[in-house]
Amino acid sequence: MERSLLASLLCVWALSSLSAASVDVIEQCPERILGNERRQTCPKKCQQDKECGNKRQCLCDGQCGLSCVAPGRMCPWPLPPGNNFDVALLSPSPSFSALLEVRCKPGFTMHNGLDTTIRRCQGDRQWSGDEPVCTASSGGGLAAEPVLVPEVSCSLPDDDDLLSVQGSASVGSTIRYHCSSGSVLIGNSVVCPPPKEVERGHLVAVQRTEYEVGETIYYLCKKSFLLDGPNQVTCLPNGTWSAEPACRARCPVPAQRSRVIVGGEKRWPYDLTDGVVAHGENVTFFCKHPEKLCSFTATEVCVDGQLKQPSCYLDPTWLQFKLFPHRLVSEIDACDPDDLQ
Ligand SMILES: *[C@@H]1O[C@H](CO)[C@@H](O)[C@H](O)[C@H]1NC(C)=O
Ligand SMILES: *[C@@H]1O[C@H](CO)[C@@H](O)[C@H](O)[C@H]1NC(C)=O
């Protein structure tokens, strides 16, 4: 098979974001297995769409292999209520290749010992497999005879040149496919889940359960909070958002009667707007040399509302501030670099 075609077949988005348990993989289709079939009929065998006439496509139909099927065909749905089991449709509609989960009620199992099975909507408009039968599992505790429970898994494409697979293939789990660069994800459309809400801010968007690739959403922070990250995020082709912005709080400056350096300027804290600095801003404090009458500096950064006071910093008293403003540590000469060795 040509590499590009193989890429197209393999790189099928297999995740329906609405259902936690849908796995729908187009893998290389098995050959039609004759004799080993529960089905009454298989549609016409094919290799390509053009062998199928204009209303049908050449699609993988489970044990029938590649067959001419009408993809719009529906399997029976809803199903009549079952004895001792519940059914749930795992795909958006009961059309060809849709998946149906059958789950026995608590305390009941199927004859293979499992309590869940998955059925697929076939080209003959029937759900795959036998009609489920759930019977009471023997008496509550452990059965006398241990039942070997086979691990039920989907088979996964293994061409890791083209795509990477995250997650386990066991029934009921969700799998994400990522195409490597150069190949493109086709098939079911990829969507992004709603972007993360931001504390102390809002998303400027209509609330939806999913967003299309390329859609952009804007973030705004509430007054006095600073946006950390871009002000917009875009839904990427792999179903994730391009960024996760956050709204960060400003920091009160833990100094009152001493100047500090903010944004390259030496200022009194009460001259700063609201006495605060923005997230990410550096604040440089003046500390006194332990023995000499000179100052050195220590810088702290405002991180989301938290600005530490450097351990060497001591806020002057009110009397010092009022009576000897020129002797405040922030106003005396800087120490000679040699004094600080
Ligand atoms: C999705 O794509 C972006 C950009 O190519 C990448 O940075 C990010 O890691 C991808 N996410 C996942 C979960 O693969
Ligand atoms: C704060 O200081 C650090 C380290 O010197 C520097 O990398 C950063 O750019 C400064 N931040 C601002 C807002 O000036």
UniProtKB/TrEMBL annotation:
It is found in: Secreted. Pfam families: Sushi, Sushi_2, WAP. InterPro entries: Compl-Cell_Adhes-Reg, Sushi/SCR/CCP_sf, Sushi_2, Sushi_SCR_CCP_dom, WAP_dom. Its main location: secreted. CDD domains: CCP. GO terms for molecular function: heparin binding; peptidase inhibitor activity. Binds to various kinds of negatively charged substances such as heparin, phospholipids, and dextran sulfate. May prevent activation of the intrinsic blood coagulation cascade by binding to phospholipids on the surface of damaged cells. Residues 73-136, 190-249 form the Sushi domain. Keywords: Disulfide bond, Glycoprotein, Heparin-binding, Repeat, Secreted, Signal, Sushi. This is Beta-2-glycoprotein 1. Disulfide bonds join 192-235. It comes from the Eukaryota. Residues 1-20 form the signal peptide. GO terms for cellular component: extracellular region.
